[in-house]
Amino acid sequence: MSTENTVIDRHYCEQLDQHDALATLRDEFDLPHDVIYLDGNSLGARPKAALQRAQQVVTQEWGTDLIKSWNTAGWFALPSSLGDQLAPLIGAEAGEVVVTDSTSINLFKALAAALHMQSGDSKRKTIITERSNFPTDIYMAEGLTRWVDRGYRIVLIDSPEELPHVVNDETALLMLTHVNYRTGYLHEMSAITALAHQHGALMLWDLAHSAGAVPVQLNAAKADFAVGCTYKYLNGGPGSPAFIWVPQHHQAAFNHPLSGWWGHANPFAMQASFAPTPGIRRALCGTQPITSLALVACGLDIFGKTDMQAIRKKSLALTDLFIQLVENRCASHPLGLVTPRAHAQRGSQASFTHPYGYAVMQALIARGIIGDYREPAIMRFGFTPLYTRFVDVWDAVEGLRDILDNERYDKHAERHAVT
Amino acid sequence: MSTENTVIDRHYCEQLDQHDALATLRDEFDLPHDVIYLDGNSLGARPKAALQRAQQVVTQEWGTDLIKSWNTAGWFALPSSLGDQLAPLIGAEAGEVVVTDSTSINLFKALAAALHMQSGDSKRKTIITERSNFPTDIYMAEGLTRWVDRGYRIVLIDSPEELPHVVNDETALLMLTHVNYRTGYLHEMSAITALAHQHGALMLWDLAHSAGAVPVQLNAAKADFAVGCTYKYLNGGPGSPAFIWVPQHHQAAFNHPLSGWWGHANPFAMQASFAPTPGIRRALCGTQPITSLALVACGLDIFGKTDMQAIRKKSLALTDLFIQLVENRCASHPLGLVTPRAHAQRGSQASFTHPYGYAVMQALIARGIIGDYREPAIMRFGFTPLYTRFVDVWDAVEGLRDILDNERYDKHAERHAVT
Prior knowledge:
With 419 residues, chain A is an alpha/beta fold. The first copy, chain A, is built from 13 helices and 15 strands.
């Protein structure tokens, strides 16, 4: 539908929902009736199936079958079986992904392996990333490079336009988050990866805000490593384990210091020296939190009912609509769009600054319109096409308009920690 | 009760259960009726409360309250609130323990911090541990020391009697598992820690098989670091997150390379450079698997109904009885006790070798008597005083006797992976 000459009102949004091919997938989720949830980019909503699965893990697998479940319920295989299920969503092959540990820990593994692979070239001493990257990506690089004390430097850039000027033959690794957590800016994965390779650098992508949100083609882009999160757009549950991708051709050289027994070639032989398993499971370390891990499948199962192209199409329609409505209906207020207008540069979120962004977001949340706030002054709204309706967009903007028009927010609100 | 002049039979064991002060705690657990579970040292049984807690986390906290639960349900605080609850079981103070990540990852943090603290003394280049330690402890030390390439060496000893001869002024760290996973051998924590300190070495204890199984007094022993597991004797659930202990006086100097955003002084300020938080939370790294983490409390709650002295008393009574019955009733079979007879050297398990140990264990499991097998040739039986009855000991030994007397095991059984 074109929105050029159409009056956009709530009825129009209802019609969009009626024509939405993904509309029925909302039934797969348990969402509170009084909430418009635009924070799936922080914590994805709950798949209905997760309750039954949690009960099964706790009662049958843990309670009744006990230790046998490591084999009979596939617990030990879960990191790789979930990885195989996730792989197509990010353009990866089976045997290239494991779901395990946290994103931070997986970043450490990939960073360490990349530096190790580059260690033959003593000039390659820089890791390039963005100052605006999610902090833990930078912190993990800091932790690693400080600890090894071999002259590695972290170069922080302030704009992707700097990349052609800073990537050079001293670059060991370029590490970027595909979609920026604050702005929703989407990097060109293929072009940037090619730029890195042109200079002999390796390329690590953090897919925290893109897996399940935008189409990702890791192998087609010839990326070297990727990590990501399952509790945002993949709806795996609170703090559910993260994933790491190592393409087949890098696996033999993928060595990292977190060499725990789950990454051993023969973990049950109980040998006194480490020898990595040949495949992707060398990216594993220790025993995994099974209850949280098992629920990841409930989120992934829903993606089996659609595809990333359909999801992307709806995602852009939702964010287009949101941006257009905010700019039209809240035009008199000092809102600044920080998310790119160009589709090719936009993830599945829309962020606006407002001088009282924190207080306005608190007022929105108080009336059940849940987005979140990120320093500085950014109101962040995430759009999960699997369960967000066009009418939700309308209602959210109307709520925002009312709060702004009538100054229904506390200008002196104190900020509290939110994740 | 003395067993010296008493006929030990099933009736006698029933009487022991009738006089057992901990007997009622078995009702806190959901155990299958047809199983004698002697594998709580691998995966603890399920507290009944865990089902309701899992349902609450999934439906109310995740499904309904969504992102708000990071604050309202205490998700973000969980690593430290659980750590405070766990602390008294290991002789630690509140503010000294966090429940987080896996034991392997926590070992890495403690190893790295210890080497960092010792780095002022260039002679201190060895990490001493046991060849019979659980492999991941050795593997993590290998991973760390290989990666930093500063001449660190791992010295593997074959008996604790070697300790006074190998610990010297080149020792950076002594790392031991308090109770050996195969043999159940229990180290003297205070004496060994004092030996390490006498030579200027730091002392790291792995409590995987002692937390919740034997009394542990980390502060009284003046230990430097400890890690451990919550899914064994603490009954936290399959693969539930591990813990790490750093005493107050070491926290300011506790620096490790896994410096993720959860360990930052101000994690929500989203600063582009890492600065560790002052307290124990600097041992945190990334986002934690909340569903698995939340269930840890259900196991810990049960310890609030007794104390480690009562647990230890029953533990020794159970293992004494088991050893005595096996040696009396299976006397004609080639069984070798590998667990120390001396109480002061025994954890909460009893292990016997048998030439067909694997096959015999499979036969036991097939009839619902669940222990496990560890290379080489070791049948391992764990005793969890919270839910194991004296009559279970009798029935388990009778099952073993029948299998051995009548050769009801498959001498050609192929070994499969077990965790």
